[in-house]
Amino acid sequence: KAGVTQTPRYLIKTRGQQVTLSCSPISGHRSVSWYQQTPGQGLQFLFEYFSETQRNKGNFPGRFSGRQFSNSRSEMNVSTLELGDSALYLCASSLVTLAGERDTQYFGPGTRLTVL
Amino acid sequence: KQEVTQIPAALSVPEGENLVLNCSFTDSAIYNLQWFRQDPGKGLTSLLLIQSSQREQTSGRLNASLDKSSGRSTLYIAASQPGDSATYLCAAINTGTASKLTFGTGTRLQVTL
Question: Are residues A48 and B34, on separate chains, in Cβ contact within 8 Å?
Answer without folding.
Answer: no
